[in-house]
Amino acid sequence: MKNIYFLLFLFVFISCKNDSQKSEQPTVVTTAADYSAYLELDDHEQITQLQLDIDSLEIVVANNPIGVLDLGRLSSKLNTLYDLKGDVNNLNRSVEMQEAVVENMYIKPNNSKRELAQAYIKLHQFKKADSLMSSFAKQDLSRESQMIYFDIAMELGDYSRAEKMLNALKNSQDYNYLIRAAKWNDYKGDLAATIRLMEKAKTLADQSGNLSLQLWTNSNIADYYGHDGQIERSYEHYLKTLQLDPNDSYALKGIAWIVYSYEKNPNEALRILTALKKRHPLPDYDLAIAEIKEFQKQTEAAEELRQSFLEEVSNPAYGNMYNTYKIEQLVNGNNEEKQQALIIAKNEVENRSTPETQSLLSLAFLKNGMMNEALENQQKYVMDKTFEPVAQLHSLEILIENGKKQKALEYGNDLLEAEYELGPVTLNHIKQILSSI
């Protein structure tokens, strides 16, 4: 029998939604002419020169493997090439060079250690980053080291340590403090405070004229505006990012999400993503394209793309970088894939125990028929500890499967209102779950 409380809830939600749509249909905020030129950029010459520089430095380093200046230059250029082309082998080689720098650096070694710790974070090797920073950060009281130590604590889910460090570093005029305070407030679920802090950080970045700070701030505040439903401002800041760096693929991917999730224009979103995948072939583009294909009812094409993603990231060179994506795909596969998802989820929690990774472990328990374990884990590590919609969706599914339907309904309103962030495919999935109660 349908739950009467859900029917009343759904009736009220749909009625409000219809009344809202009558007066204010979602508007189209993007214009293809704003960003199409960025899709057509030819970076072949830049990449060719970069590769020539790398080849020359490889020869120099082979002849003098302890020359820290050349090792550092090679590491930097390899990292840049990875950012441009997405070949994970370049990222791994970059980290190898930075490790060699640390091993051979005797003058001001902490600078190189901080850079290596940040490289480990990029590879999702969080415990290695923590171990490295722990080896000197307690004696190195520089703000630079303490800030990176905070970043690692957040990645590891060590929130008590992160909060203590953030309070000790408090300085409302310090850009690096502000962006970390914003991240902390986002974790706490205070999006309004997060945006206020990011806006202040953006002012400081603009005043500094530092391009890297401006790029990072504009692209990240665009994300936060999107989460807050300020879609026009989100789009505006993605465009500002592209004006600063025409090769910024992250901003173009953000625009593609607006076009797809907000404007419901899958063909244009596919045009953007297809161009990005060709230029910057990261594995997760397959998943983004697969979702849109599913939205278009092209189920077979969507499944082929998901399998292509799983095949590519099975390459050991990726390490832990795509574990969360892999779990999300494998839990919906056959029994063998579901078991594989559980193994990866356990490893991911071992690598970093956050509410989000624990929620994926709970989901893997659920999909493997371990309903009690799923509920116990979700209650202990996830519920009331994160405001992320995906984790809330997992809580909804786990509660329903454990017969706690009334408790599950408490998540319904928040999830139905997170349409833009979750996307239309997931929203339809949520409606199907709720209608089955």
Mean pLDDT: 92
Total strand segments:
0
Secondary structure: helix percent:
over 70%
State the major sheet.
Answer: none
The sequence of SSEs as H and E is: HHHHHHHHHHHHHHHHHHHHHHHHHH
Describe the 3D structure.
It contains 26 helices and no strands. The longest helix has 20 residues, at 4-23. The protein has helices spanning 4-23, 32-39, 44-63, 68-85, 88-104, 109-122, 126-134, 143-156, 159-168, 175-188, 191-208, 211-227, 231-244, 249-262, 266-279, 284-295, 299-313, 323-330, 335-351, 355-367, 371-381, 389-401, 405-409, 412-416, 419-422, 424-435. Mean pLDDT is 92; it is low at 1-24. With 437 residues, the protein is mainly α. Helix 6 (109-122) runs antiparallel to helix 7 (126-134), helix 8 packs antiparallel against helix 9 (159-168) and helix 16 (284-295) runs antiparallel to helix 17. Helix content is 77%, strand content 0%.
